[in-house]
Hints:
two-stranded antiparallel sheet, rod-shaped
Amino acid sequence: MTRKxxxxxxxxxxxxxxxxxxxxxxxxxxxxxxxxxxxxxxxxLVTGTPERLSLTTLAALCDILGCEPGDLVEPVTSxxxxxxxxxxxxxxxxxxxxx
Length: 99
């Protein structure tokens, strides 16, 4: 079995904690930091989970929200932590057999 890694994107929650409820509020704030994204791109960034994100955009979001990258991206893993090895079977004596 393989170990799978993923992440949870917390941008929407962090925006709400800062009183920002419309995705369009981010457009001018990002533009002021040199990140030019359309309203549609910002909407997808807030409402979805991005597969790719530039470090410039991540740094701008952290500056806007006063947070660290780890506050926006929470890594999650599933599956075994190490190699999976079979357990050694223990044979018990049956009825009428000596131990």
